[in-house]
Write a structure and sequence with these properties.
Strand content: 5-15%
Oligomer: single chain
Protein name: Exostosin GT47 domain-containing protein
Number of helices: 17
GO cellular component, one term: Golgi membrane
Helix content: 25-40%
Structural class: alpha/beta
Shape: globular
Family: Belongs to the glycosyltransferase 47 family.
Pfam families: Exostosin_GT47 (PF03016)
Membrane topology: Single-pass type II membrane protein
Radius of gyration: 28 Å
Strand order of the largest sheet: 3-4-5-6-7
């Protein structure tokens, strides 16, 4: 403060006599009222950062009053996880048998071990905020049409979510089922942080009352008008605390006929591309695209993976896939197939070290979750892909992201990975595996459902237009 006053008065003193370019001295006298005003302004501006810092410190103390363990820049691991083995599952039996995940106490400092290659950006911060979410987050689900309604199939949960015919759109149905089974749902909308609109884009695509996909945006816009007239909650926030789920590219266009739905509501979608005009990364959420399957508990170790790379899929809708097949299709260390592979699809993931996720019609496919499920390191070749949970997970610690312009260097990049680096990627892949699985009958802590609602939790606290 003293330095600031000396600086200001020094400037005033210097300004009292300003040499002119001519030999004559021009005196510029600063009036006392103006000097007082100038000094007061400097003092207020200098105090603003200190006041802001004090306010944020108080808020942080109120938010985590019982946190006694230190937040370190070195990323640390949860003692309930074992990064160094493949035998300890994350969730305990009590968590598996309860719709409400059990709250774990902060890890004792004497058993926390630092790990520079942790797949989490900051496990401690995530852990503390996640526990708070389990205690506080509430979601209100808008009423679904009863079975007698002609549109009931659009809103009601899928009767058989593990049906393989659901395929790439399983995540959309699994989220709804898991939410309805969780303890996060509230029947008191006034206490809800978010409001779920339970229509299914995937169901609409094959529903007999929809003559074409172009009629979906009109139906959704009409639905928003209906809930905004029957309930007050949409109007209170202009839809900013409302969300819907979709795992098909048609879902993006579903918002195109309603301005507030596109600009304000949260879209939880598998087609999470920065490049798409109907996806806004600051408010929308990337949903992992997962194929319906029962969980395997045993992974092939790295020593049993005798192929360097695996890929199988359609190339008609992807120039990038065509180019990669042209470059590496004849390489014997690559198992590359246009269409179906010559052996069971899952075997390609089990016997390979790296599995390619290459952009097709859109940035997303289920191949990333397939690779994670079978213990194959994902190689992501899909520009502008907003990867799921990227604000929590450090994807560079369990996958390899290659820019589309670097595909000619693909093999060089992969064989440059040392054995120690690969082992680290593999261990981290096992750690994050639980985040890319669904349990629609009964959600399990840290699975895809809870990781997705945690993304909602991070978007809470929106200012409503009416108190």
């Amino acid at each position: 403060m003293a330095m600031l006053l000396r600086t200001v008065f020094g400037k005033v003193k210097l300004m009292q006599r300003v040499p002119h370019r001519s030999n004559r001295n021009a005196c510029f006298m600063l009036s006392p009222p103006f000097a007082v005003l100038l000094i007061s302004t400097f003092l207020i501006l200098s105090l603003r950062p200190e006041l802001s810092l004090f306010k944020s410190s108080v808020s942080a103390h109120d938010k985590w009053p019982n946190m006694t363990y230190k937040v370190s820049p070195v990323q640390q691991r949860n003692p309930k996880e074992d990064y160094g083995s493949h035998t300890v599952p994350f969730s305990s039996s009590s968590q598996l048998n309860s719709t409400t995940p059990q709250l774990a106490s902060p890890p004792p400092s004497h058993i926390i071990k630092t790990m520079a290659t942790s797949p989490y950006h900051n496990w401690e911060l995530f852990y503390a905020d996640y526990q708070e979410m389990l205690q506080k987050l509430k979601i209100f689900v808008y009423p679904m049409n009863n079975e007698s309604s002609p549109f009931s199939g659009v809103f009601l949960p899928h009767p058989n979510p593990l049906n393989p015919k659901i395929g790439n759109y399983f995540s959309e149905h699994a989220f709804k089922l898991a939410l309805l089974q969780s303890s996060l749902v509230t029947q008191r909308p006034e206490e809800a942080h978010f409001f779920f609109m339970p229509f299914s884009i995937n169901a609409m695509r094959n529903y007999p009352l929809f003559h074409s996909e172009s009629s979906i945006p009109n139906f959704v816009a009409h639905y928003i008008l209906k809930i905004s007239s029957e309930f007050q909650f949409w109007n209170v926030s202009a839809g900013a605390d409302h969300f819907f789920i979709c795992c098909h590219s048609v879902g993006r266009e579903a918002t195109s006929k309603h301005f507030a739905l596109h600009n304000n509501a949260i879209q939880v979608t598998c087609s999470s591309s920065y490049f798409n005009r109907l996806y806004s990364a600051h408010k929308d959420i990337a949903l992992p695209q997962v194929w319906p399957r029962h969980q395997d508990q045993v992974l092939n170790p790295p020593s049993a993976r005798n192929k360097l790379v695996f890929f199988a899929g359609r190339v008609q809708n992807s120039p990038m896939r065509k180019e990669i097949l042209r470059l590496w299709g004849n390489d014997t260390s690559f198992s590359m197939f246009s269409g179906h592979s010559s052996f069971p699809y899952e075997e390609g993931f089990k016997r390979s070290k790296y599995c390619l996720h290459i952009k097709g019609y859109d940035v997303n496919t289920a191949r990333i979750s397939d690779a994670i499920h079978y213990g194959c390191i994902p190689v992501v070749i899909s520009n502008y892909y907003d990867l799921p949970f990227a604000n929590i997970l450090d994807w560079s610690k369990f996958s390899i992201v290659v820019h589309q312009s670097d595909i000619a260097l693909l093999k060089h990049i992969l064989i440059s990975v040392t054995e120690q680096m690969y082992q680290s990627l593999y261990q981290n892949l096992y750690t994050v595996r639980k985040h890319f699985s669904w349990h629609p009958e009964m959600p399990v802590s840290y699975d895809s459902f809870y990781m997705t609602v945690y993304q909602l939790w991070l978007r809470r606290g929106l200012h409503r237009l009416v108190a």
